[in-house]
Structure formats: C-alpha cells, structure tokens
Input
Amino acid sequence: MEKLTKRRLDALKPSKVGVEGSEQFLWDGELRGFGVRVSAAGLKSFIVQYRTPEGRHRRRVIGRYGLMTVEQARDAARDILMAVAKGCDPEEAATRTDDLTIGAVCDWYLDEAEAGRILGKRRRPIKASTLAMDRSRIDAHIKPLLGKRIINTLKLGDIEGAQADIAAGKTSKARVGSRGGATTGGEGVAARTMSTLHSILEHAVRLGKITSNPAKGVRRLASTPRDRRLSRAEIEKLGKAMRIAEQDGEHPTGLAAIRFFLMTGLRRMEGLALERAWLHDEEGSIRFPDTKSGAQTRVIGRAAVDLLLAQPQAGSRFFFPADWGEGHFVGIVRVLDRLCAMARLEDVTPHTLRHTFASVAGDLGFSELTIAALLGHAARGVTQRYIHIDEALRLAADRVADEMADILDGKAAAARPSRRGALQTQNNRGQTRERGGQNIDAERL
Output
C-alpha cells in the first residue's frame, strides 16, 4: 500500500457505480487508519479511522482535500491516533465541549448510521437509499447554510431562516458534467431538508450526543402536492413520440423503462433497480426484498412481464442495466424529458407515470383497495395484507397493463364513462325529457 500523495489524490476519480451515494476509500500506507473518502460526486475528504478503548469503531472526517494539504491532514490524523493510544476517545471528548457544530453532528450521524448503530423506521437500521438522500441534503443544503453554526447558540429562527433560503434557491447549483443531477431549491426541498435535520438532531439527543434539539418546533413549509397525471390523449401522444424516437435511435433501455413504469406504476428506483432474480414469471409477480414499505410481493400484468423478459441479458443482474459499470440505468429523466419535448407535454416526471397508472386503473373501475395493492402502498388492515394472493388482483394487473399498452400503441378504444358519469348522464337525459314534456304541455295550453 502506497503513501497518500497529492499526485495520487489528483488521479483518484469517483467510482462509476450506478448506485446513488456510492463511495470509495483510499488508505495511507504509512499511517494506519489515515485515508481519504471520495463521494459519488467526486468530493474528497480526509478521514481517520480507529478503535476506541471500549472496542467501538470510529471514523472521523478531518477536512476536505483542497482546503487542506495531505501533510496537514496527516498531522491532524496523527494527533487523533496519538490521543487514542493514550486511552482517550476524541469523539467523546468532542461531545463534552460546548462548540459542537451542526456539521460535526451530521458527520457523526452518517458514520453511526452507516455502521447500523442508529435505528430508523420500524426499529430497523436506516436503509442505504435513505442515507444516500440524507447525505445529499446534508452536503447540498444543511452544511452550506448551518454547518459551522454551534448547536448551543442556534435558535429556532436560524433554522427557519435556513429553510427560507433553501426555498428561495440560495443553495441551488447547476448540474456539473454529463452525470449526476442539479441541486434544486423550492418549498418541497426545503421542507424535506428540515425534516432530515430535525431527525438527525433527535437521534443525537436520544443517544446523548447533544442535550437538546434546536430544530424542535420548527414549522416546515407546506408544499403543494403534485398530482399531475397524463390523460388518455397525452398517453397516446407520448406513445407516438416513443415510436418516432425509437426509429431515431433513442436509448432503448430508457424507452423500455418508461413503458414499464406506465404498465406497472412502480416507483422510480423500484423499477430501475429491479433485479432479474426478483421476478417470478409464472405467478406474474415481483418479490422485493425491501421497499419503502418493507419486503413486498408486487403483482404485475402479463404484458409487463413479457416486456421484462424481452430485455437483453447483457451480463447484468438488472433488467435495466447501466451503459457501463455494474449498476442499473439512471438516465430515465433525460429520456423522458426528450420524449415530452417531442410530444409537447409539460411537467412530466417519472412519478407522473405512477400517478397515470393509478388513474387508468381508476378509469377501468377498480377499487381504491385494489389500486393501492397494485401500487404497493403500505397495508393498513388485515384484509389488505393478504390481497396480494387474490387472483382478482392478477386479473386487475393484466387488465391495466393491457389497456396501457393499447393506449401507448394507439389501439385503445375511447374510455368508457365511469358508473358515476353514466348515472349523471342518465339523470340529465331524464331532466331533459321532463323539461321537454313541460314545454309540450305549455304549447298545448
């Protein structure tokens, strides 16, 4: 193992793994425990890793490469390791000081959560996907605005002020390079970031890292729910654009993924990260080892199953593999944007496809309970827990998938009116006849 040098760090590139939040580490060959961590976005931070006198593993961030040199970071790591050798835990010592910052608590949270020592929902270790999102919000919004603020001096107004800054776009950044996304602001992003900060500080209070949570009582911005869905006419436009784009050489994996989402209503990461081993062809279902609602069996239509089986193997465990590396495809947003620009559709996201699936299922007359089961919503009662084994649900999945495929291909008949619409039409006709009768009687008089 070689010694860390500026040349080695400059040559170190982010790992090309198609999983959000992936990181890589490079350790020093001279000072054991000293190294550098490279985030998926290419951010390089010096770290030191050690074991406390009680046998607990610690990993501390020393500083960011570029703001400090390799030798400066090595000296700081050596001081920490010398303190550990003398029986002192620098992390515990930092807890007893009065100058603990928001940034330090966020680093502590990420290290503890990654080690599985912080429990989240359902009293289970926090999921890797959740940690990736937490890290993104910390790096993009929390640290730039509050990272250097001392917790003991922080007021509720300071935190709500940071929320207002995020909503106003003060932490927004344009997309850099050909991979990754832009950092956006807005009320929804601001509210979710405040939820993350509040949760981190609550964990710190519960585990004795800090004495009180300065974010307790913060009023989070109320964002307008997004309920955009495509009408049948818009689905037809999108399908036509997909056929034209396919002839023009549009990304085949992106086109297949968009069609699959419309036919199944899966969440974006559920579909993109779908592994071949999870599909059970004969029963027409996907057995997710983990989802937003825990482990789950999801029924999908036969047409959607056939679409998955038609995807090239490409030596990947994913149905929608990345163009390079071992990860899954992540470029669905850009493909969808190009299609919508061609079809002149606005405000369409991958989640819009999920709403559209539910809308078509509702138009076909399926109940809210059935649609909730098809979408994989968390079970709220004993009946819903067992609905996934019901044959009627398989028929519903087939019906919706076939209908969606027909609309996309321009083969669907006009939508039949719902029962409520039919009753309204019948009542209107009756009222017309009644008014007509009155007119006739008036003429007779």
About this structure: Residues 17-21, 381-388, 416-445 have pLDDT under 50 and may be disordered. Strands lie at 24-27, 34-38, 44-51, 57-64, 279-280, 285-288, 296-299.
